[in-house]
# Entry
Amino acid sequence: MGNFKMQNKRIENIIEELKDQYLEQDRYNRPWIIGYSGGKDSTVLLTLVWLAIENLKENGYSLKRNVYVVCNDTMVENPVIEEYLSIVLNKIQMAAKEQHLPITVATTMPELEDSFWCCVIGKGYPVPNNSFRFCTEKMKIKPTSKFITDQVDADGEAIVLVGTRLTESQQRERSIRRHEIKGHRLSKHPLNPNTYTYAPIKELLLEEVWGIINTIPSPWGFDNKILYQIYKDASSDDYECPDVVTDETHKACGQSRFGCWICTVVKEDKSMSSLINNGVEWMKPLLEFRDRLVENRNVSELRCSTRRNGQKAIDNTGHNLGNYTMEYRIQLLRELLTVQKETQEYRSSIDLITNQELIAIQVIWYRDGNFTTTVNDIYNEVYGYNIPNTNIGLQERLLLEKACSETPQHYQLIQELLALQKNKVLLMRKYGLATDLETRLGTFVKEDNQ
# Structure
């Protein structure tokens, strides 16, 4: 296992504690759920859990408790990390099967309507900042909570293993301390009932984390040098990096955080800037687009005077604080698809927005009364395609056109109402169709009477 592990009694103690906790007799045989991001801390957590379970198996113990390695895909992950994660998760799944360990990989994703692009380009939510962080709730907490709840329904209770450490930040330390049950390893989960959290590596120092990654071979057969190199390339603050004196090649490597490539909560995305400076130049258009989103967030001309619920949203100076205007949403989609096309010239496998999200955005735009510029139009414009954009078949359109020959505005109205009805079924939340139709008819009557 390497000299580092043998010399560090605390790491040995963590593995022993994990073995003891795994074997604990409980009524529900509660499954373990490991939140796995692919970063250094969750990698170390999974490594030690794996070694503990592996040791139990070698010593003849029955492995009755299931372990779920759960990765949350926000759909806007840093593409470098997304590619790395895809490879690692596949390795974990295959190795667990080959080694006959009760470890299963699962990936959670936000509901389509809650995805970043459906919220921003579809509904016109202003991009997140410190006071408006819809992304955390919709894209991370809800999908993971649903997975946990599903396991609780099946097994009665569940234990979530987290890779947080006390030395990571004061805020995280306060959070861990706040939910701890004194004298017990397990803590009450702050959100999910019948769920507990367990932080086995909370006492580890950063140097120890990197020591484990650099000296203990990955139990699932992955080359940890790849993870080390990603952190090294993404580090713009080497003065914070520990020197793990186990190998001369293990120089200062940084403790950068990876998240969404589009994150607008941070003032500056240092990790993406550093990746670009270290040779990942194809990410430059992504960073520039992200910076434009930050720059234009509070421009009054790009925001409506009301929120989506119709509530007035203007401050004392007359500055608009509502959702983005339809014109700006159209502009954002055009820019995003342009960036995607540029990126695909270097990495053809990368999609910054999914086809499902494009369809959902079109549905939302119909609901918001935009029937002129369609998602299809913008896609064709950017990619140079000529995909037909029809909502009903040719024969039906010819009959409808003939019936409305004297009142062409009625033809357009019926097309719009059919578009609302047809596209409504594509989303999970199907409420509001009657309201949408009534709203569009009301608008038409007002326009007709003017």
About this structure: Confidence is low (pLDDT under 50) at residues 1-7, 169-173, 178-183, 236-256. The chain has 17 helices and six strands. The radius of gyration is 26 Å. The first strand starts at residue 32 and ends at 35.
